[in-house]
Amino acid sequence: xxxxxxxxxxxxxxxxxxxxxxxxxxxxxxxxxxxxxxxxxxxxxxxxxxxxxxxxxxxxxxxxxxxxxxxxxxxxxxxxxxxxxxxxxxxxxxxxxxxxxxxxxxxxxxxxxxxxxxxxxxxxxxxxxxxxxxxxxxxxxxxxxxxxxxxxxxxxxxxxxxxxxxxxxxxxxxxxxxxxxxxxxxxxxxxxxxxxxxxxxxxxxxxxxxxxxxxxxxxxxxxxxxxxxxxxxx
Length: 234
Known about the structure:
Number of helices: 10
Order of helices and strands: HHHHHHHHHH
Structural class: mainly alpha
């Protein structure tokens, strides 16, 4: 079971290490089937530590200004996500978020050219906090804002943003008494697989950086929305 879970985490790490996000998209549903105890806390711990690796690898490209504005928007967005779950059926929230992400991807393919300006980052951070809290897909809003940015900047900036967001989530779970010693051990056992996936993603970066980062971002965002819709409908 540990080997199976490790391979799942490795696959998610390859996606996020090369594209900039997507680990939870790949790993969360499969780990929930393999062993539900691995979701969400152990995976959150692994993804939080993993998010720092792209920052360390490409730290000179990190847009810290963008990270700050995105995190500022994430705080009220998290509150909105909690409110959405309290006021609306979780299924309809998931469907709404999935549709919004797909529409955003469609607009990006047609004419929409978002840029990481302060208003855009605040809005994306708020959407990311809302989507991540309500449906566990917080990556697409921030990724779409950076879709016209160079690959190294995308990966390192998203990594820094996800690390900060994960720390907030872990602190909240800890205060709620939901983080236990066995979950920490599970995260430690899975982290070497994440590091292996990160190393494998190194050569793939060169492939994506040759003008393929934006298509990869859009594909992963669309797949995350489709997976969310499928889960909600079924």
